[in-house]
Amino acid sequence: MSALAILALLQAVTLSGRLQGGVTITPDTVHVGDPFTVSVRVRAPLGASVEFPIAPDSNGLVEPLDPVQITSSADSVAIDQTARYRLAAWRPGRFQIEFPDVLVRQQIGNRRVEVSNVVITVASVLPIDRADIAPRPTRPVFTFGLPWWVWALLALLVIAIISLVVWLWRRRRLRPSMGEDPFATAEREFTRIEAIGLLDAGERVRHVALMTEVLRDYLAAVVPGASNSQTSSELAAALRRGGVGTSTRVASLLSEVDLVKFARRPLSADRGDALGKEARAIVGAINSAAKQAERMAKAA
Q: First and final CA of the chain: distance in angstroms?
């Protein structure tokens, strides 16, 4: 649509000369969000200074897109300036944009130019329904089930709980039963592991790990301060504090087994057999020392 020039010539005749103003809106009809320009032109006598408003009083109807642009026209008999406001409207309809007055300063006093008749028509961007079809009735709210990731988390939680229960059961099975001699329990487990034949099956690392695990459980049962959850260095330190004479052998054995389990140190079948027998020998040595100490205590 072509631009509509709204010339609201507002004049005030004084001894200092004629004061004129005009407003132009380009275009006068826009869609919601489309830019349009409001140009406010003021013509004042020579020697006057013109102060345009920074922005319109939008009241939420329009929004300035750029700072106001002020230009001057060449005129030898008057001051001719134009302020251009680039705006956008966000509500459909036809409404008037309010602007503050333009202030014209002169030596004999200040005068104001009223900016009025700034009317814009804003069309909606929504399509017009010409089919005259009644809308469908509102559907009931559909309740969705739990998202898939909730079930995945629940499944992982169940697996973790089952794994923990199995681990605790296996650890408990290796511990001495109520009233059972820890040495007898360890010997039974040593015999059971050797009977599996892991070395012959090529499972050398597993054989060594199980044999040293029995050793750890035995030490936790007979040495105060020792626990099968301790690291190898912590367990060796607990044995030294407890005065166990085989603490050096235990530290050496556990250190080598850690290299095999965690650092993937090569392990031959003969060496795996030797490490397993060393774990069993350490248990026997500690048990013999404990029996001897018990006999000496009784003799004293």
A: 120
Cis before 45? omega within 30: no
SS3 content of the chain, % helix, strand, coil (to 5): 40, 25, 35
Q: Taking Cα atoms as reference points, which of 104, 88, 111 lies closest to residue 38?
A: 88
Burial environment of residue 189 by CB neighbours within 10 A (0 to 12, 13 to 18, 19 or more): buried
Closest Cα partner for 44 from 89, 111, 139, 117?
A: 111
Q: What is residue 3's predicted lDDT score, i.e. its pLDDT?
A: 38
The one-letter code for the residue type at 29 is T
List strands edge to edge, sheet with 102-106.
49-51, 102-106, 109-113
Backbone angles phi, psi at 176, to 5 degrees: -65, 135
Instruction: Check if the beta carbon of residue 38 is closer than 8 Å to that of residue 85.
Output: yes
SS3 251: helix
DSSP category for residue 177: P
* Contact (CB, 8 A) for 272 and 259: no
Does residue 8 contact residue 60 with C-beta atoms inside 8 Å?
Answer: no
10 Å Cβ neighbour count for 235?
A: 24
CA–CA separation, 213 vs 283, rounded Å? 12
What does the pLDDT read at residue 58? 65
Task: Give the pLDDT confidence score for residue 188 in this predicted structure.
Answer: 93
Q: What's CA 160's distance to the chain center, in Å?
A: 25
Question: Judging by beta carbons within 10 Å of its beta carbon (0-12, 13-18, 19+), is residue 239 exposed, middle or buried?
Answer: buried
Using CA atoms, how far apart are residues 206 and 262, in angstroms rounded to an integer?
12
Query: Mean pLDDT per 10-residue run, the chain (300 residues)?
Result: 36 51 87 88 86 81 86 81 88 85 86 85 72 66 73 90 80 56 92 92 92 92 88 88 83 92 90 93 89 81
Please, which residues have CB within 8 angstroms of residue 194's CB and are 6 or more apart in sequence? 276
Write down the pLDDT at residue 12.
Answer: 35
